[in-house]
From TrEMBL:
Gene3D superfamilies cross-referenced by the UniProt entry: ATP:guanido phosphotransferase, N-terminal domain, Glutamine synthetase/guanido kinase, catalytic domain
Species annotation: Hypothenemus hampei (Coffee berry borer)
Record-stated family: Belongs to the ATP:guanido phosphotransferase family.
Phosphagen kinase C-terminal domain location: 138-375
Protein name per Swiss-Prot or TrEMBL: arginine kinase
Domain named Phosphagen kinase N-terminal: residues: 27-111
Molecular function via GO: arginine kinase activity; ATP binding
Keywords (A to Z) from UniProt: ATP-binding, Kinase, Nucleotide-binding, Transferase
InterPro entries reported for this sequence: ATP-guanido_PTrfase (IPR000749), ATP-guanido_PTrfase_AS (IPR022415), ATP-guanido_PTrfase_cat (IPR022414), ATP-guanido_PTrfase_N (IPR022413), ATP-guanido_PTrfase_N_sf (IPR036802), Gln_synth/guanido_kin_cat_dom (IPR014746)
PANTHER family referenced in this protein's UniProt entry, alphabetically: ARGININE KINASE 1-RELATED (PTHR11547:SF38), ARGININE OR CREATINE KINASE (PTHR11547)
Enzyme Commission no: 2.7.3.3
Superkingdom as given in the UniProt entry: Eukaryota
Pfam families per record: ATP-gua_Ptrans, ATP-gua_PtransN
Length: 377
């Protein structure tokens, strides 16, 4: 395991542990202008709440050894005042170099204090999970994903075209070596026909293009270089390369068999990890571009129809909160529900084990289905 601090060199100019050099006058000007705009706005983002004058002054001069500044981390939130969070780590070191900003965000979002530590990976007893909905009345499909960062590379805002191509070729090599149920095909986004791309998006296999939060975070440079999708024959195991994270590894299938989907993910991740070294931090677990994904990086979700419960959205949200579930629309993040189909997933992923994440989703959905059945009567 590599600690973020091991990746960092001491700054020669300011004798602080802040990487090489200092932010340029241009960056400082932009930070001040952005801060003024944010302060005068009615934004309720975490960036607005936690970027105080004091935090700005502590962070504004600093640079990581990859050359990232505070501006690289907050530009998405400065542009998108309606962000929930508004902050991305420009490279893995940012979590430590700009900890005055990241720590309170992580603490509030994940309920994870500065002194807390991510437990070591524990996939748990995979055999304990079964089918949430054996009769197929409620759950349309199940999906579990995790994110991984390849050691030695920054995140999107600092990645060169070369970095994108390297990660793609490393990823592709490993994925092409997988066998059995996991063997499949890699399709680069470059050269993919618009028809194929749109069909993959509509069927919930491929990432959408043009997310304005990622756009403003500078995550779309050199697009579509390095980006692509790998999937097995049945499209029950998929990997995205160089979208929001270096790798997004996921398994999915129709119906509610969480056991099968989780089992396949654990096998796939273990196989991939035999061949690529990913960045972990002793405190924060697996490091990701967005602070919401730290820790296990696990997002386990179902597409589900709960017609009675979702009639009253306020009640539905209270119930979801009770079981630590996040509600999204059926077409992914920032989408509304079409036909009463919701995407429900575990909200917590830092400070608990992989198994605990999946178990929270499993237990929560079990309870929601029980409540739906009782309410229908
Ligand atoms: N940056 C956006 C916001 O703060 C999205 C955050 C979570 N989503 C994500 N895909 N990482 O609202």
């Amino acid at each position: 395991m590599a600690k973020a601090s091991q990746l960092k060199s001491k700054c020669m100019k300011c004798e602080e542990k802040c990487g090489k050099g200092k932010a340029s006058p241009e960056v400082l000007n932009q930070l001040e202008a952005g801060f003024a705009k944010l302060s005068n706005s009615d934004s309720v983002s975490m960036l607005k709440r936690f970027l105080t004058r004091e935090v700005l002054d502590k962070c504004k001069q600093k640079k990581t050894s990859f050359g990232s500044t505070l501006l690289d981390c907050i530009q998405s939130g400065l542009e998108n005042l309606d962000s929930g969070i508004g902050v991305y780590a420009a490279d893995p070191e940012c979590y430590e170099v700009f900890n005055e900003l990241f720590d309170p965000i992580i603490e509030e979002y994940h309920n994870f204090k500065k002194t807390d530590k991510q437990p070591t990976t524990d996939w748990g007893n995979v055999g304990l999970l079964g089918n949430l909905d054996p009769k197929g009345e409620f759950v349309l499909s199940t999906r579990v994903r995790c994110c991984r960062t390849i050691k030695g590379y920054p995140f999107n805002p600092c990645m060169t075209e070369e970095n994108y191509k390297d990660i793609e070729s490393q990823g592709q090599n490993v994925l092409n070596s997988l066998s059995g149920e996991l063997s499949g095909t890699y399709i680069p986004l470059k050269g993919m026909s618009k028809d194929v791309q749109q069909t993959l998006i509509n069927d919930h296999y491929l990432f959408k293009e043009g997310d304005r939060f990622l756009q403003a975070a500078n995550a779309f440079r050199y697009w579509p270089a390095g980006r692509g999708i790998f999937f097995n024959k049945n499209k029950t195991f998929l990997v995205w390369l160089c979208e929001e994270d270096h790798l997004r590894i996921m398994t999915m299938q129709p119906g509610g068999n969480v056991g099968d989907v989780y089992n396949r993910l654990v096998t796939a991740v273990n196989e991939i990890q035999k061949k690529i070294t990913f960045v972990t931090d002793r405190r924060l677990g697996y490091l990701t571009f967005c602070p919401t994904n730290l820790g296990t990086t696990i997002r386990a979700s179902v597409h589900i129809k709960l017609p009675t419960l979702s009639k009253n959205m306020d009640q539905f949200k209270i119930l979801a909160d009770k079981y630590h579930l996040q509600i999204r629309g059926g077409a992914g993040e920032h989408s509304d529900s079409a036909d009463g189909i919701y995407d429900l997933s575990n909200k917590r992923r830092l400070g608990l084990t992989e198994f605990q994440c999946i178990k929270q989703m499993y237990d929560g959905i079990t309870e929601l289905i029980k409540t739906e059945k009782a309410a229908k009567r």
